Sequence to fold (116 residues):
Amino acid sequence: MTFQLSKPDFHNSDQNKEELQFGENIIQKDLDTDIIAEANKNGTIYLDKDIDLNSDKAKEAISHEKQHLAQMNRGDLDYDDDHVYWKGKKYPRQEMNEGSKRLPWEKEAYSKTKKA
Ligand SMILES: [Zn+2]
Fold:
């Protein structure tokens, strides 16, 4: 992998309306250290502002986050501040290493991510 997500890569808080939008649903903003991109329940993807939108790194990260959007869209993945819900099972966020490739939703997303 050319990028590593070691922290939650989906976001809890609501959108800020004033954020600039690029492309379809991709919004570049200042994300936490170690976070490259995040998928949001409202269908948007955040990409760290320091990453070139046209770079391979961005393309791969966006492809990965789109898998999470698809998972949310078909109802397999959901989350709130305290839990992640995957296919009806509840995972306490406190106890998990979010971004770990071993988590079922990550495993699937990584397996489907298009390599740039
Ligand atoms: Zn992920």
Summary: Residues 26-112 form one domain. The first helix runs from residue 56 to 73. DSSP finds two helices and six strands in the chain.
